[in-house]
Amino acid sequence: MIEIEQSGALNTVQDLGRFNFRHMGVSVSGAMDALALRAGNLLLGNDENAAALEVQLFPFRMRFLQDSSIAVTGADCRPTLDGTPLPPWWGCGVRAGQLLELRYPRSGARGYVCVAGGIDVPLVLGSRSTALRGGFGGVDGRPLQRGDRLALGESRVPPLPVSGIGIEPPDSALQSWFPRNNAGEIQLRAIPSGEYPLFAADAARFWQQSWQVSNQSNRTGYRLAGDPIFPSESVEMRSYGLIPGIVQVPPGGEPIIQLSDANTAGGYPKIAGVIEQDLWRLGQVLPGQSIQLIQSDAREAIAIEQEVARWLNRLRLSCQPLRKALTV
């Protein structure tokens, strides 16, 4: 069991999400950086979908009420264990009574604390993710708060050594696959979508300019601020189904990228869809930072997905000798 000693209004329990219920108006939810969650769980020997803590407001403090193992991934939140600094993307054994603290990140927006066995909150519609707008999942559908005590699932693998073990972060290990422009801004690949031809006159500016993530952004969607783009004609559209990654353009001309808590339906023209393997990178962008969207296609999206799968498989294989050594 763990106890929350300090938290913020948007820190929650998340797994990979709640699928197959969008037809009922239920958002997917789940971790904004799914790759960080999967990697942390793999290091611990958990199921990749095990629930963890998503931290985006700092400082965050939690105390362990039993011996266990942890993996801290995602943003470089300058973690400390009983005041001793831990490297980013790090896993280690912990003892009952120890205190873990995450501080304002050096880089990135969201940190993930995975614990051996996963966070054991009730399954709701097949997921432990917190749906804040719906008020269900996680811990009674609300953010974490001081005094919360969370049970841990059963772990079937030996604990990690106290000395710890690290993971090479994906943006480093796969640097050539996850580019930045000359200004250091993250480049997100997107595929033109249904109403893209309507924006023909402004399409070049959509791809070429930098877009700043507005302060009016959250887990539902990131609103982008920049030189507005407009369709060549007004069209009346029926609402259509939405998924994370869809880029809509409301009447004001500043795009919105739907994210983990995306609406399940909408009617604004959609100009593009950010490829799935770039969404974790967007989840680590803070409001006020800028991004660039670059045109992609299905073939490139599949190639990137395959490369990420190979990186995860290398992580699985690298953990196996460690587990064998700990069992001996």
TrEMBL record:
It comes from the Bacteria. Keywords: ATP-binding, Hydrolase, Nucleotide-binding. Pfam families: CT_A_B. InterPro entries: CT_A_B, Cyclophilin-like_dom_sf, PxpC. Residues 23-311 form the Carboxyltransferase domain. Gene3D superfamilies: Cyclophilin-like (2.40.100.10). This is Biotin-dependent carboxyltransferase family protein. It comes from Pantoea nemavictus.
